[in-house]
Design goal:
549 residues, Growth Hormone, Chain: A, two-stranded antiparallel ribbon, two-stranded antiparallel sheet, 2 domains, mainly alpha
Length: 549
């Protein structure tokens, strides 16, 4: 047997998706739920409700004058939208002055960091910086934890990230100093998505090709569930301290994974730890009720030969993603897709307070509106392919953003189109995870997904700052989001299709993978006749495949 087939035959005996994979997958996707909740926690715990200048002699700590009273209307001018100005009031001789203090509409938010520290007017940057600090933590986490996943294993990183997100998520609730808050938010961000990255890679390396689409999309569904939980708990708990503690405690569900979850057999194999890899597969076969037997001595011998090849030709590390021309092209385009998807996704998600309606309900809707896109993906992805679907969804998401920019600010129609844009961009975002995992070879897969996630985190960190441009014109951020989505959607045409094809193992495999395959030469995603033959990753015994054909 050719040594390149050894791993695939062993994984093939396991089948695409059995009881063992189902249980492990359930453990993996819990990380997606906690990631969604942590990522957008500031939407509730640091919310900035409607506000106006506090009027000396009229408003006090115990009493706030009605916003439509003559006293208020005579003291505060109206803005261009016919609402009370949030930052200015009349001074002596009807001259305009900047507010020194504010009162807040507590209809939806009675307690938040935004109210405590006045994230308004000239202090708006403080709220943006708090979210940016978290996202820059995610950037560092993507780099460091992605590398640690490839060096020390997916399971180790998964569990430690869960422990530390619990620790820092709790600590941030107790902080009373703004700059300490920012520092802990940064540390919180490093580990907030660490388990997500490791869990996603674990799933992609464990399940068979016919189930990767469903499993990949389910990760995104669980992320959306995290957003819906965020809104639900925010609605029920009006104290930001207890709310943040509750958000942090969701990480507890990740702690038993050290005892329940297995390491990736593919990663163990790539590290030359064949006996451990085979032992996991044997355990999985028993749980799946399979009678297949594994020749452990032969597989260990094959692994040594294979891993020698990898150690000589394909050392792991992020740098290897840029060493060869085809890998460089794919890496740059896919990172651009991550960047654009993230900036649009979080641009729409973080600005719910600017939309018309109950902010908790809108946040919940922004989570639930993702579900139709996932249904579309589960039905069409294996029929159309990653490339055509992700480019179409990004282009439609970009067009939606430009339509929103053309509609009246804060209108109901704008809110509706935002929901449509979120539907499309969440769909493309869900594909990018699976697409990246299949484009990169095993020896750098976590590093590749981590690099892409880092690019997404950089754009996520920039999103609150881009949103501050609405002080110049409310349409500017949305126009930027729209053009980035359009540009990235077009660039995706130049990536190869991965549906039904073997996951590349070495850097050499990764460089050969998809050569000459673009939407302009093969837009259907079908295998090109002049493409090099892949190792058939059937996830069932190769001899059985030959009999079926």
């Amino acid at each position: 047997m050719d040594k390149e087939h050894a791993l695939e035959e062993m994984m093939g005996k396991l089948g695409d998706f059995g009881r063992y994979q189902g249980f492990q997958f359930f453990l993996h996707i819990l990380a997606a739920m906690t990631a969604g909740l942590h990522m957008l926690s500031l939407v509730t715990v640091a919310a900035v409700p409607e506000h106006r200048c506090a009027i000396m002699g009229v408003d006090s700590t115990n009493f706030t004058e009605s916003w439509n009273s003559s006293l208020v209307l005579n003291a505060i001018p109206l803005n261009e939208h016919g609402k009370l100005d949030s930052c200015k009031m009349y001074g002596p001789n009807k001259s305009l002055e900047h507010c020194e203090s504010w009162v807040y509409d507590t209809q939806y938010y009675k307690s938040s960091r935004g109210i405590e520290w006045d994230f308004v007017c000239s202090r708006r940057w403080m709220g943006a910086a708090a979210q940016t600090a978290y996202m820059f933590g995610v950037v560092l986490g993507s780099i460091v934890l992605g590398k640690l996943c490839d060096s020390f294993g997916r399971k180790t990183v998964f569990v430690w990230a869960g422990i530390l997100q619990l620790l820092f998520g709790t600590a941030v609730a107790f902080v009373n100093d703004y700059y300490t808050f920012i520092s802990i938010r940064f540390l919180y961000g490093i580990f907030g998505s660490g388990s997500y990255i490791a869990g996603f890679v674990l799933t992609m390396e464990l399940v068979g090709p016919s189930r990767r689409t469903l499993c990949g999309v389910t990760f995104q569904i669980m992320f959306a569930v995290g957003i819906m939980l965020l809104a639900g708990w925010g609605y029920l708990i009006d104290n930001r301290f207890y709310l943040q503690i509750l958000y942090a405690l969701h990480a507890v569900v990740l702690l038993p994974h050290w005892f329940l979850m297995d390491e990736s057999p593919r990663w163990l194999w790539a590290q030359g730890r064949a006996r451990e890899s085979v032992a996991i597969i044997e355990k999985a076969l028993k749980i799946n009720g399979s009678t297949e037997e594994i020749d452990t001595p032969a597989l260990v011998s094959q692994c040594k030969a294979t891993c020698t090849k990898y150690s000589e030709d394909s050392p792991s590390g992020t740098f290897n993603l840029f060493k060869t021309p085809n890998m460089l092209k794919k890496t740059l385009i896919i990172c651009g897709c991550w960047f654009a998807n993230s900036v649009v996704y979080y641009g729409l998600s973080l600005n719910t307070g600017k939309l018309n309606g109950n902010p908790y309900f809108i946040t919940f809707l922004l989570g639930i509106v993702e579900m139709p896109s996932y249904i579309i993906i589960m039905y069409y992805l294996d029929r159309i392919g990653h490339r055509a679907l992700i480019s179409t969804m990004m282009l439609l998401g970009g067009i939606s953003c430009l339509i929103v920019a053309a509609l009246p600010h804060g209108s109901t129609s704008a809110t509706g189109i935002v929901m449509v844009g979120k539907l499309f961009i969440s769909g493309s975002y869900s594909i990018i995870y699976k697409y990246s995992a299949e484009l990169f070879p095993t020896v750098v897969r976590s590093s590749g997904v981590g690099l892409g996630s880092m690019c997404a985190s950089v754009s996520g960190a920039l999103t609150p700052l881009i949103s501050l441009l609405d002080t110049l014109n409310p349409k500017i951020p949305t126009i930027i989001f729209g053009f980035l989505a359009l540009l990235s959607g077009f660039s995706t045409f130049f990536l190869p299709e991965t549906i039904g094809r073997t996951l590349p193992q070495s850097i050499e495999d990764g460089e050969k993978f998809g050569l000459g395959d673009t939407c302009f030469t093969n837009c259907s995603g079908r295998r090109m006749s002049n493409a090099s033959e892949d190792i058939p990753e059937t996830m069932i015994p190769l001899d059985v495949t030959e009999k079926k054909s």
